[in-house]
Type-4 uracil-DNA glycosylase
Amino acid sequence: MTKYPGAGEYLPNTDDLAEVRAAAAHCHGCDLYRDATQTVFGAGSPHASTVLIGEQPGNDEDLDGHPFVGPAGHLLDRALDDIGIDRATLYLTNAVKHFRFEQRGKRRIHQQPRRTEIVACAPWLTTEIDLVAPELVICLGAIATQAVLGPKAKVTELRGRTTEAEHYRVGATVHPSSVLRAPDRTQAYREFVDDLTRLFEAG
Ligand code: URA
Ligand code: SF4
């Protein structure tokens, strides 16, 4: 397994989130920067009381430079709308900041980030959480959950509940793109919204 140098050596010594974001644009902490268009850093309120963490930028985010602007982001927007949460009050980011994909003809097919890439990219995520200093962290899907709670953490066991971490409460639900792929989308969407409702209430 490739051992990457990781993002740590690209981290500036600052507590200014904008400076951290600027530094992340030049990160070569693992190989994912090579084929991706750009670093997609977190976005939203820098003093949000809730941080939402996804997996990695998708095709649309890679081209646009901002998290959750594609189909999964639209589903998330709709769910937040339904429970009366204004996205602008949140901070949204991803466990991994570059898009990992496989080129098939003209299409770029999403690939899950490897454990080594999650670990390599973790300094950005840790720094974002430290600087935003939220009360609640919500992990969307397995990759975010494992990035925050360790490789053995399981969304199926944790979803919809929060536990106390050192400086915040942390909870998990499924990734919005899994709702889009679910055989029964209506049911999957309802469960996703139920989880988010309970997580926001608990935080
Ligand atoms: N999926 C994610 O996990 N994050 C994004 O930013 C977009 C899609
Ligand atoms: Fe750096 Fe993360 Fe991109 Fe790898 S995925 S190059 S660690 S920002």
Observations:
- The longest helix spans residues 115-132.
- The two ends are 38 Å apart (CA to CA).
